[in-house]
Amino acid sequence: MKHHRHLVRAGAALIGAALLFFVVRALVMPKSFGRFGHFRGDNIAEQAAIPAVHGAPEACAECHMEVAETKVAGKHASVPCQDCHGPLALHITEAGKEQMPMHRSFTLCARCHQQLAARPAAFPQIDLMEHLDVVGAGHDALTTNEAICFDCHRPHSPSPALAPGTKTKSR
Length: 171
Hints:
Strand 1 and strand 2 form a beta hairpin. The protein has a two-stranded antiparallel ribbon. The chain is an all-alpha fold. It has helices at residues 4-28, 43-48, 65-73, 81-85, 106-113, 128-134, 141-144; strands at 92-93, 96-97. It is 37% helix and 2% strand. It is built from seven helices and two strands; from the N terminus they run H-H-H-H-E-E-H-H-H.
């Protein structure tokens, strides 16, 4: 082997790179990495120290039984209350009950019901602009009435049981 020196140099460079990798890895990697799995073990205590802002899905029903019964019987039974109303911590504070924020906008409904090819065919989807035309609201209605979906649909049981233009309660 006439050119064995090149192979020795390449091998030495490879071994040197591997050693450098393991030295840098040992210096950079936290000591708790891998203690409980493939993550930094100290992160468990850090995450536990963060105050909870979301409550259990059934927490709302403790005080709002009538609304919960309406929701369970409706199409939105599987949608957690906090998806539309925000975190429970905004409603129940150390000072007591506060006004629950309600996100009553077209964009909230569109987040789930906008027609997308990736959604299952059985999921209720609509072409939002076409829907506004069909119900007679027109595209301009979005600029004047952001909560236009609630003119015809009840949020907790959203079947279109209301006549267009009939205002609904928050249930």
